Amino acid sequence: MTAVPHPRSEAAVPVRSGRRSLALALLCGALGAAVALLSSRQGWSAGAVPVAGGHYPLTVKGSDVTGVPAALAIVGLAALVAVFAVRRAGRLLVAGLLALSGAGTVAAALLGAGDNSALDEKAAQAAGDSSATAIALTHTAWPYVAAVGGALILVAGLLALRYSRLWPAMSGRYERDGAPRPRAVRPVDPDRPEDLWKALDRGEDPTGA
Q1: Which label site among 48, 53, 82, 117 has the fewest CB atoms less than 10 Å from its CB?
Q2: Where would I find the beta strands (DSSP E) of 135-207?
Q3: 99 contact partners, CB below 8 Å, separation of at least 6
Q4: Which tens digits make up the pLDDT trace of 86-141?
Q5: pTM of the shown model
Q6: Which residue has the higher pLDDT, 168 or 176?
Q7: Lowest mean per-residue pLDDT among 3-7, 123-127, 166-170
Q8: How far is residue 90's CA from residue 188's CA, in Å, rounded to a whole number?
Q9: Which of 34-38, 41-45, 189-193 bottoms out in mean pLDDT, i.e. has the lowest?
Q10: For residue 105, which of 26, 33, 156 has the smallest C-alpha distance?
């Protein structure tokens, strides 16, 4: 004889999947945004420029090279929160924005890894010569760390696209059909004029007619 699956056990499967995917998406999204923002504040490359008496050292941070990873990380973090404030098609649109923010962060970080324009700009300022460029260039791993942060945001977006229909939404004053919830009618004492005025202010009929 084959065992018949219990209806409750079948119903619990999507609930568990929703909880796990929600926890993973929150972890990936928050961690990815934090990593991308932190990486943008670190030194991405260094070099030097010849000046009178030797070489002047130069360093540039990720935010000097490109502000896109940090900006998209903030957008992704906002989208991660907004997923719980919308429903149905709106939730899918926000989830798509979250995934695109992660993909854009990865692309911008990788493109900035070999970008020397910020170093050359600093070299021209230090040498007082617009044609001066940086030499002895070195690059750090921070752009790739920012790309990892973007990848985590992308994973959060993909999880939201796949499982967000199972996630809870923020409670509001509206029901699922969009209609406002009916307010309970407070009892009015006809012998108390202040109760009558309060009922009228609430838009209620104090006479009960």
Answers
A1: 53
A2: 135-139
A3: 153, 154, 156, 157, 158, 160, 161
A4: 888 889 999 999 999 999 999 999 999 999 999 999 999 988 888 999 999 999 99
A5: 0.74
A6: 168
A7: 3-7
A8: 42
A9: 189-193
A10: 33
> Which bin fits 178, alpha (ψ -120 to 50), beta or left (φ > 0)?
left
Within the chain, strands assigned E span 43-51, 54-61, 135-139
d(CA 77, CA 108): 17
pLDDT tens track for 170-189 = 654 444 444 555 555 556 55
CA 29 → CA 56, 92, 136, 152, 188, distances in Å?
A: 40, 16, 37, 6, 51
Distance CA 98, CA 150 (A): 10
Question: What would the two tokens of residue 12 be?
Answer: 């619990």
Buried b (16+ CB within 10 A) or exposed e, 174-198: eeeeeeeeeeeeeebeeeeeeebee
Question: What's the pLDDT score for residue 54?
Answer: 87
Can you give the pLDDT at residue 184? 55
Q: Are 99 and 109 in contact (CB under 8 A)?
A: no
Residue with tokens 């050292």: 57
Per-residue tokens: 119: 């170093």
- Residue 207 tokens read as 């006479």
